[in-house]
């Protein structure tokens, strides 16, 4: 079941770096204009009341890394890993994020295969 969100989330892969959160990079699971989900294999030191500056090293389209200001929205333990949902705040690289999300949206649209009417094949 797809969660209801303000913005569409796109599955993606990348590294999320923030020494203040964790000495090990997190793994980006999905991203939107307003948030992202990150998996950590080492438990991060997350303060839900704090803002963090993270660097996203994205793997698609050889894009340069993005420096974004985020705030944790939730933290959850799952299968020995820590999942963190971040809200993305207005940041210096917000315009680059908007461009990147447009690329992901276009890629998703191109991957969609239109369904043909196969009923006429059996007439």
Describe what this molecule looks like in 3D.
The structure is a single chain. With 123 residues, the protein is mainly beta. The chain contains one helix and six strands; from the N terminus they run E-E-E-E-E-E-H. The N and C termini lie far apart (36 Å).
Strand order of the largest sheet: 1-2-3-6-5-4
Query: Element order, helices and strands?
Result: EEEEEEH
Q: Based on CA inertia axes, which overall geometry fits?
A: globular
Oligomer: single chain
Q: Report the end-to-end length measured between terminal Cα atoms.
A: 36 Å
Topology:
Elements: E1 10-17, E2 26-31, E3 35-40, E4 52-58, E5 66-78, E6 81-88, H1 94-111
Antiparallel strand pairs: 1-2, 1-4, 2-3, 3-6, 4-5, 5-6
Summarize the structure.
The chain has 123 residues and is mainly β. The protein has one helix at 94-111, and strands spanning 10-17, 26-31, 35-40, 52-58, 66-78, 81-88. The radius of gyration is 17 Å and the shape is globular.
List keywords for this structure.
6-stranded antiparallel beta barrel, mainly beta, 123 residues, globular, 15% helix
């Amino acid at each position: 079941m797809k969660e209801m969100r303000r913005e569409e989330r796109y599955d993606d892969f990348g590294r999320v770096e923030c020494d203040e959160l964790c000495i090990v990079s997190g793994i980006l699971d999905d991203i939107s204009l307003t948030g992202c989900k990150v998996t950590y294999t080492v438990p991060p030191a997350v303060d839900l009341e704090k803002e963090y500056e993270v660097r996203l090293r994205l793997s698609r389209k050889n894009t340069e890394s993005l420096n974004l200001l985020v705030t944790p929205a939730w933290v959850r333990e799952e299968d020995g890993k820590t999942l963190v949902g971040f809200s993305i705040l207005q940041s210096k690289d917000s315009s680059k994020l908007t461009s990147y999300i447009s690329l992901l949206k276009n890629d998703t649209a191109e991957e969609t295969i239109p369904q043909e009417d196969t009923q006429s094949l059996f007439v």
